[in-house]
Write a structure and sequence with these properties.
The chain is an alpha+beta fold. 30% of the residues lie in helices and 22% in strands. The protein has a single domain, classed as Alpha-Beta Plaits, CATH 3.30.70. The longest helix is centred in the N-terminal third of the chain and has 13 residues.
């Protein structure tokens, strides 16, 4: 899945958290990606893991993904 595809499942605080959430989703058979939010506005944004990230899933997986992340919240 590419970062331009899918619908926003949730927003997490930074890249390491996005990698953990995507890992959990993928382990459970849900394809996902993450991307920067508009909150990052820095010339270094491509070189840093700081700032919020949107977690994206396919629309047909949205409900299952919500249920899964609710169990860890």
């Amino acid at each position: 899945m590419e970062p331009g595809e899918g619908v926003v499942l949730t927003v997490v605080s930074d890249q390491p958290e996005a990698e953990i959430v995507c890992g959990l989703l993928q382990t459970n058979g849900i394809d996902c990606a993450y991307r920067d939010t508009e909150a990052i506005d820095s010339p270094l944004e491509d070189f840093t893991a700081a700032g919020p990230r949107e977690i994206l899933v396919r629309e047909e997986d949205l409900e299952a993904a919500r249920e899964l992340i609710a169990t860890i919240g």
